[in-house]
Every structure is written in structure tokens, then in C-alpha cells.
Amino acid sequence: MAKLKAAKNKKDLLNAAKDFEREEGLDRSLMLDGVKRELLRKCEIRFGTSDNVTVMVDPKTCDYHVIRELTVADPITDRPTQVTPAEAFMIDRKHHEIGDVVKEEVEVQNIGQVAQNAGRNAIMQKAITMLEEEKNIPREIVFHAIRSAIMTACKNTYDHTDNITIDIDPDTCEYHVRSSKNIVETVEDPETEISLEEAQEKDGSYKIGEVYTEEIDSKTFGRIAASAARGVMMQDIHEEEHRIILEEYTRLNHTVITGIVQRKIGKSYSINLGTADAILTEREQIRGESYRPNDRYKFYVLDVKDSRRGTKIYVSRTHPDLVRRLFEQEVVEIRDGIVEIKNIAREAGNRTKMAVWSNDENVDPVGACVGMNGTRVNAVVEELHNEKIDIINWDENPARLIENALSPAKVISVIADSEEKTAKVVVPDYQLSLAIGREGQNARLAARLTGYKIDIKSETQARESGDFFDMDEEYYDEDGYYEDEDGDLLLDDEAADADDDLLIDDGEAASEEESSESAETGDESSEESESEEGSQNDEE
Predict the structure, then answer these.
(1) pTM for the full model?
(2) Residues above pLDDT 70, as percent of the chain
(3) Closest C-alpha among 34, 197, 205 to residue 126
């Protein structure tokens, strides 16, 4: 930028343009287009209009020319676009008739300052484009911040700002600050009024009562005003950035997002999510999992909070819904609503139990989650660093659900109390330790998954406590069947019906025995009476 400002001719401008292109990473044509616009703006300020001005700049040699077309007239009615015949002769040393057009080359003063302004506008355009692409801040918001900043500088410089307007070109990012003044005979307030003589020096067509517009050069702002303007602009941009981040991550709340570990802060870690940083607290870290800088993980967005210092995003690696969201990403049937995840019980880093249900009888929910050759479940296990995952079938029958939840242990019987939310489970002696699990983990996860307080006993313990009937002749099979005395397998309902039939048959047999006994008793009494009568007849 310093070389641009120091340029005095086309050679200096060419060298400065090359340096600008190399240092800022911008095409020189972008800056030279700004030079054209800046020269037109200066002509408008100098002559009152730029409609009759043509600016030519060669992008290769940086040679520049400013041509002004003037119409020969007498008398002069429009000073910015007309000249007298004598003035026309002074321009090209030729005699002209009224109505002829004369081309005058305008001498460019301080081309370095013009190039510097153009370069500054090009850099601003690049910065606004970066804000729009990287921070998702719309251009309109940035332009609003620039207007607010310039207006703040004007308020710190002038007593009146009601007559000041700020125009920004959205394509080139060039801005113009203009002040409107009333044309009066006697000036009382120089900031809002201008004399007729002074206005006619710029344009002879002005009259008393009209409004004269002049451009304000931003260089007239003092250091304090410029500093205040910069602060206002940065604050507006930061507030908009904060609002966009808050909206974005509020929408992503309770979902899974990929993040990169940045650094450790106390016992917590700072996680880069791309457009914002999140916090992984000690409580939400998996025990034994190491978080090194630049490591990439998937996190569950636990909470998003708004604060004065910005948006606070909290993520987790231990939340059960992390497993749910990972399976939703891997299993198409879950995303389509065919398979539902009913509940998840998790001890992060060690083991997870997940109960699934299918809304389509032709789809196996467990098989859908496992995938062919275990591809789907293995993808989740790999993301959780080899955490064990048990996937079971959900059942509305709490006894069967508890049996499934205790897998891989085999269960002999389950007695569940749905009101008390308690269950008594009997397992074979050799399955007791498997049912309970290491440090009670299997039973604990099963209790969380089902919502029941589970009391697990071995077959021997159940017999000794009297909580278990004799299983020598009849037992409950793992597939939900009973085996009767004849060796036939019966479903639960069939077994109950068989028990009822057995009770009915026993009752009928008992009544038959009672009737036979009464019949035998009657026969004996009749025989006794006949013998007594016979004896009496003999005596007679």
C-alpha cells in the first residue's frame, strides 16, 4: 500500500501494482478497476459531473488517460459540460463552431493517492468476501456495519449528521459520504448551508433554495473518530457472527458433529467444530480415552448456551444418545423409521446395551443394526474405540425383555412385578457369574435398560430359598417353551392351558372316586341290613 501511495507516474504505478498483486494475492485488474472508478469520482468532485468523462487504464502497462468531452456553446448554460469557442481553441489550438465537441485530457494529480484508495477498496472487497464465505455473514450485514462506523465518525467530527448520507456499492465495496446543504444568500451554519456564489462555482445552474450535495473525504476524520468507527464496525460484525453461530448450533443441538481436539484447558478440552469452539468437560470424557491435539472425534452436542462472551457449546463422548445418533447414521432402517431404538443403557468406554424394535415384521431389527458381516455395528464400535455393544430385541412383555437384557446369559425363569418394577430371575448355576457380569455390569445395564430392579439367583439358591419350583420334570426352555411329562414342547399359553386341563382332570377323577366310595359304602350297608334280617328270620 505504501508503494501505491508513492506512485507518481505510470511506471511507478506498474511496479506498485505488481507488488500489490504479489503481497495481497489479488489480481491487479481488480485494483486498476478501482483506479478507474476513483478517477471518475475525483472528476465528479472537481467538475460537478462525470457523465462526459472517460477513463482508460491499460492493465499491462498501467498507462492511464482521463478524457473529458466538452460541447462548444455561447453563452454557457452548463459549465461542467460546455466551453466557449475561445476555451475550445485553448484546448486543441483549433477553431470550432457552436455545437462542436472538444476532447480534453484531464491532468491527473496525485495518482498515488488514487491507487491507494483503489487498493484499499480491493482489500475491503476481499475481506467482505471472506466474511461471507467463512463466517456466513451476509454482505448486507457488513455494509450496515460499515455505514454505522462511518456515521459514528461523522458524529464525532460534525455537529449535524442529519444531512449526511452514505452510499456503498455492493459490487465494488466503494463507499461515498455526501453532505447536503441548502443554498442561501447568507450562511449561518456552514455544516448545513452554502452560499449561492460557492455553489455556482461548482455548477452555474444552482439557485437560491436548492440543495447542494458535496462529497466528504474520509481523510478529514480525526484519529479518535476513526478509532471509534473501527470499534463500532467490529462490534457489529462480532454480534452478527455470534448470532449466526448461536442459530447454527442451536439447530445442531442433540446431534452428532465431528470436531478436532485443540488444546487442554485445565481438565477440559477445547474442541474445534469448524465455525466455533466447543468445550469437552471432564465429566463428558470417556475414561481411558486420550485426547491429543489434532485428533478427530465425533461428539454429541450436549447443550448450546448464549452468554455475554459468546456462544457456549458443550459436547460429550459419554452420553447414551451418542450411540443412538451413530446408529442413525449407519443404519438406513433407523433413519427411515422402520427400526426404532427403544432404549439405551451405557457405561461409556466399557459396554452398551441397546434395545431395538421393528415396525415391519419382515425386518429383523437386530440384524439391521448389526449389518452384513457386522459392518454397521463395527463402524460404531470403532468410533467408540472398541466399546462392547449388545443389541437385543425389545418386548412389551417385561419378563421376556428382562431375559433378553441379561444376554448373553441364559435364563430359566423370570417373575416380574410391573407395579413394583421388580423382577426375580433364576439362572443356571454355571450362568450366575455371566448374568451378573464383571463387577455387576451386566445386571446393572440390564436394570437400566428395562427400568426394573432385578434380583438374580442361581437355581440352587432359588431352591434353597423356596422361590423356585422343582425343575426335574418340567423346565422353561430358552425359546419360550415348556416341556411336559411326555416330552412335548408347549408354549407359555399352551402350558398354562395344559395345567388347567390337568387341574380339571384331577377334579373329575376325585369326584369319581368319591362317588365310587359312596357306592361301595351303600353296598356294604345294604349287605349288613340283609344279614341282620336273615338272622332275625332264623331266630323266628
Answers:
(1) 0.62
(2) 84
(3) 34
